[in-house]
Design a protein that fits this description.
The structure is a single chain. By secondary structure, the protein is mostly helical. It has one domain. The chain is 68% helix and 3% strand. It contains 14 helices and 4 strands. The strands form 2 sheets. It has a two-stranded antiparallel ribbon. A two-stranded antiparallel ribbon has the order 3-4. Helix 6 runs antiparallel to helix 7, helix 11 packs across helix 12 and helix 12 packs antiparallel against helix 13. The longest helix is centred in the C-terminal third of the chain and has 31 residues. The protein is globular and about 65 Å long. The two termini are 42 Å apart.
Length: 396
Amino acid sequence: MIGSYALVAAVTATVTALTVPLMVRLAHRSGAVAIPSDRRVHTRPTPTLGGGAMFLGMFAGIGAASALGQFSTMFESLGNLGAVAAAATVMFVSGVVDDIREVSAPAKMAGIVLSGSILSLGGITIVNLPLPFVGFTVLSPDLAALVTVLWVVVLANAVNLIDGLDGLAAGVMAVASGAFLLYSVKLDREGLLDAGNVGPLLAVITLGVCLGFLVWNFHPAKIFMGDSGALLLGLLMASSSIAVGGQSDESFTGQSWFFFAPLVIPLLILGVPLVDMAFAVLRRATRRSGLATADKDHLHHRLLRLGHGHRRSVLILWAWTALLSAFALYPAITGEATAMIPIAAAALVLLLFTLLEPWWGRRRAGRSDDAPGHRRREDPPAEVEDREPEAARAAS
């Protein structure tokens, strides 16, 4: 299966990367272009239809999987994959319309809710919920549909809001989907997933889409994913986590972590975008401003203000996602907790680097400026790109 997963990821990434130039041309023709302004760091018009390449890459990955015998059980009944494809189409269309022609927040939210509803009707729904002191709780059909739609809404908006710097959302979701793929494969090998569970396949397709898009999106970006891409990534990750975590009712005997893993692991792996969204909601509620009100207090904005550059800020948030994923996955995969100390030490080092490196850099620069014969020059302004107005409208 590892070779098959690698092939699906390669096909998905290749098609995504190869179709980006087509999306660039379509974006210029349709007017889906981000124009430089005092709120943006890029100096030339940048197309925003990267989600189109992701959408085509997703279907290429599904097509590649259908041609491989290892995934035959997932295609025996097309209900689940059909629901994902239909929900992804609705999500993509909702985003691409907003990329081309701005729509209201309620209209876009209606598209997200419709997408989650299609997913639930097609069988990708949170049925079993592991709760402390209660055990696996089987949700009623109405409650299961509601929880499923809420999870889709949360993830779609979380990815949309974190899409504020070149390569940030795609990189974070690549790490998250890769980590979730490892968890899904472990469950599958232990016989804890049904043979036709589509969760692992969706995770590897999400990984391929992100890797293919990063070829063009890493700073300086040649194209932005736009709302169409961000919402699509949120839908794919929500579908994968629901299929794996919301439909399994078994755990390893004697391993309490695995019992709660279906509930906890997606939250930890997606910790960066979820924490950023939670603070954004809390911050705006405290200020009594609308949830769609743009600000520059997101995690990436704070890193830029600390003195980290564009690329370093993105890499730091990728690293935090990787550490959270390691913290979540190691006990789940090995059944041991011996690596928690090294992971905690790595987290401490990353935290100190995040907080102190800009100060140390300024101090070294000051020493160089004070050296005899050195000509002082002004530091370049921090690179800040606030693309949040596109994302924040969906959060209201």
